[in-house]
Write a structure and sequence with these properties.
This protein is 35% helix and 15% strand. Helix 1 crosses helix 2.
């Protein structure tokens, strides 16, 4: 996992399986996006479970135009 950040109370977070369903990809793809730094990883306090931000996931899954550059 490349990037980890504290969770914000103003965002919605989902687990990897739910993120995969939303993005219509496999959980392995979501994990790869996390490893590549395309999605920030958030850990739930105490349990340590991994979550991703729905807003980041939505942005990542938007169609790109020619002048967009997503790393």
């Amino acid at each position: 996992i490349k990037r980890e950040a504290p969770m914000s109370e103003h965002q919605t977070y989902v687990d990897i399986r739910h993120a995969a369903r939303v993005a219509e990809v496999s959980p392995r793809t979501v994990r790869r996006w996390m490893d590549e730094g395309k999605l920030t990883t958030y850990r739930v306090p105490i349990s340590g479970r991994v979550r991703v931000s729905v807003s980041e996931l939505t942005f990542l899954c938007q169609p790109m135009t020619n002048d967009d550059e997503r790393t």
